[in-house]
TrEMBL record:
Pfam families: Sigma70_r2 (PF04542), Sigma70_r4_2 (PF08281). Residues 137-186 form the RNA polymerase sigma factor 70 region 4 type domain. Belongs to the sigma-70 factor family. ECF subfamily. Keywords: DNA-binding, Sigma factor, Transcription, Transcription regulation. This is RNA polymerase sigma factor. Residues 28-92 form the RNA polymerase sigma-70 region domain. The lineage of its organism: Bacteria, Bacillati, Actinomycetota, Actinomycetes, Kitasatosporales.
Length: 277
């Protein structure tokens, strides 16, 4: 997402506020990928994320004249999106989310089903990737919304503290405390159970494929997270590098290794259609 204040993004924002439809579409298409990616991380389900991202983009469009260029345009967009996500009614995934205690118990139960992939027509590494991303995003849902968004902005997106605090509308000191609490909770769970985090842990994504398919959590023929077979095949090498990091840095690195989330809906086209010329 480009910064406003210099370059074509600033020009497009100014032109869009003045009624230029083409500039408005360019602005929406520029911010759409990051808004959707933030939504996926926050809601844990691309389908819920598409609906939430649409609502956030509508607010970006309708409030564009309120942008004062006092900070980066991306910061302003993230704040609009964050406020919208925090105010949306809880999704089904959030309502069904486990507590950290229950998630710990779930990960302690090693599946007894065979380890062989039950769907030979689907690449095994893609199924493993689907389980990995789905499980780690589900961990984020153990956090309440405020701590979850804080963790995403600070630990996964690695925004500086001043920018993240501005997006959340809190002081940098309050942000640091909230981030530390969220980081400790996620890291504690991963360090205790996750085989990605520590090879000494018994839990393995491959061992959970059959269970995830059996429960309907993973549809082998409709994968929502594993979007790149090449990235899935290369992940073991990435994981080797992640495990060389200090424990405090590993969880964030695991989240940053997720494949890029892409919407199946033309969100910019959808928003543009709501505001006829």
């Amino acid at each position: 997402m480009k910064r406003a204040g210099t370059g074509e993004t600033a020009e497009d924002v100014t032109a869009a506020v003045g009624g230029d439809r083409a500039a408005l579409e360019r602005v929406v298409r520029a911010v759409q990928p990051e808004v959707f990616r933030l939504a996926v991380r926050f809601f844990g389900d691309p389908r819920d994320a598409e609906d939430a991202a649409q609502e956030a983009l509508i607010q970006v469009v309708t409030r564009l004249d309120r942008f004062r260029a006092e900070s980066a345009f991306s910061t302003w967009v993230y704040r609009v999106a964050t406020n919208k996500f925090l105010s949306i009614a809880r999704t089904r995934g959030e309502r069904q989310a486990l507590s950290f205690t229950d998630f710990d118990t779930e990960l302690s139960r090693l599946p007894q089903s065979p380890l062989a992939t039950p769907h030979p027509d689907v690449e095994e590494q893609l199924l493993i990737e689907e389980v990995k991303v789905g499980c780690t995003l589900a961990m984020l849902l153990c956090l309440d919304r405020e701590h979850r968004m804080t963790y995403i902005l600070g630990e996964i997106m690695e925004l500086d503290h001043a920018t993240a605090a501005e997006i959340l509308g809190i002081t940098p000191a309050a942000y640091r405390k909230r981030l530390q609490r969220a980081r400790e909770r996620i890291t504690h769970l991963m360090r205790a159970r996750c085989g990605l985090f520590d090879r000494a842990n018994a839990c393995r994504c491959r061992k959970r494929v059959n269970t995830a398919v059996g429960r309907g959590c993973v549809d082998p023929h409709d994968l929502v997270f594993a979007t790149s077979a090449q990235q899935a095949r290369e992940f073991p090498e990435v994981l080797t590098e992640i495990r060389r990091l200090e424990h405090a840095e590993r969880a964030g690195a695991i989240y940053r290794s997720h494949p890029e989330a892409r919407s199946h809906v033309d969100l910019a086209g959808f928003v543009d259609g709501l505001f006829p010329a």
